[in-house]
Write a structure and sequence with these properties.
The chain is an alpha/beta fold. The chain has helices at about 5-10, 20-30, 45-55, 95-100, 140-145, 190-200, 210-220, 225-230, 235-240, 240-260, 270-280, 285-295, 300-310, 320-345; strands at about 15-20, 35-40, 55-60, 65, 70, 85, 110, 155, 160-165, 170-175, 175-180, 205.
Length: about 350
């Protein structure tokens, strides 16, 4: 198997990080400190910067690490890889998925690290929902058709990071990356990836209930991320203002009810999640960072998919639906204003 411990220890493991934003950049730099051969793939100004200046990570203790020997290229130039860290935004995945085929060999493993509900959630799930497609995440089926479920190694990503400028990422806090197989069985390839992530400086371990961990993180991301964009508030501000804390708790209760409808029991109570979020401090969620940077918001993966599958199970999510509608409107209006500003004619008022 390509991802055997022997291959990794020999220093010839080929890893491609597709999407070099905050999390992709953090993982890419860390992996580049190991013996693996790391290839970075992105588009636009980020790709140009990576070619010219490389990728730099500012660590939580103020140091700078560089992906010195990383290869920067386009997707079609990367060649077959042993491990693909798929770090593009969830809404960009359908466009990227067909091109990933050029990176596959027989044993290539795909490690998606998106925020929110993963498109693969019901693949190899078992039970009455097995294989069902979430329309918000894979509307045309391109993800399922281009990335077979057998290639996917699931993950839940806890580090927080931000892009300071193209090619420079700051690690804010957190170090855990949880790994699991979609059928919940322990595997050699999962062990190899966990060892690789540990060598890169992450705290990584295997879970035999990965979907439970997905929901535990969704308690936060389906609630704090949309609210942060709508209010411009940081994590600690949302937790310490009593009216918003009550709203957060009510929204989390709806998320928890959806999880219960699909047989998932949370390993931590809501109050513990609130306490943990408050400890993060004045951190801007990725959705607020996207809003401030003028990027598209991750509505579908963060809250749209939760509302969608809630309807499958006839679970009421009135508050989540309201938050989803408000976030979609904010995303629409923001993008339309940006487009209008690009097409608005420049008026010379020098002689006025």
């Amino acid at each position: 198997m390509a991802l055997s411990l022997k291959v990794w220890e020999a220093g010839i493991l080929r890893i491609c990080v597709v999407g070099v934003g905050a999390i992709g950049g953090l993982i890419g730099v860390r992996l580049a400190q190991t013996a693996a051969t790391v290839t970075l793939v992105d588009v636009g100004s980020t790709q140009e910067t990576l070619r010219e200046s490389g990728l730099t990570l500012r660590t939580t203790d103020g140091k700078e690490l560089r992906a010195k020997n990383a290869i920067v290229c386009d997707l079609e130039e990367a060649g077959p890889q042993d491990l693909i860290v798929l770090a593009v935004k969830a809404h960009d995945l359908p466009a990227v998925a067909p091109g990933l085929r050029a990176l596959f060999h027989q044993d290539t493993v795909v490690l998606p690290v998106q925020n929110g509900m993963p498109w693969w959630y019901f693949q190899r799930h078992g039970g009455p929902w097995d294989g069902r497609q979430i329309q918000n995440l894979d509307p045309d089926g391109s993800l399922a058709s281009n990335i077979s479920a057998e290639r996917i190694l699931g993950s839940v990503i806890y580090p927080a990071a931000e892009v300071l400028e193209p090619g420079i990422v700051r690690h804010v806090e957190g170090n855990r990356i949880v790994i699991g197989e979609l059928d919940n069985c322990q595997s050699e390839r999962a062990d190899a990836v966990i060892d690789l992530l540990k060598a890169a400086g992450f705290k990584s371990f295997f879970l035999d209930d990965l979907r439970g961990e997905v929901w535990l993180k969704l308690l936060g991301s389906a609630v704090f991320n949309p609210l942060s964009a709508l209010t411009r508030a940081t994590m600690v501000e949302m937790c310490r203002f009593p009216p918003s804390r009550r709203l957060v708790q009510a929204l989390m209760e709806e998320v928890e009810a959806v999880a219960h409808a699909f047989g998932v029991k949370m390993r931590l109570p809501i109050e513990r999640r609130l306490e943990g979020a408050e400890k993060v401090g004045h951190h801007k969620t990725s959705t607020l960072q996207d809003l401030e940077a003028g990027r598209r918001l991750e509505v579908d993966a963060l809250v749209g998919a939760v509302v969608e599958i809630a309807r499958w199970a006839n679970v009421a999510t009135l508050r989540l639906e309201a938050i989803e509608a408000a976030l979609r409107l904010l995303d629409k209006e923001t993008r339309e204003r940006q487009q209008a500003s690009k097409t608005r004619p420049v008026v010379d008022t020098a002689d006025a």
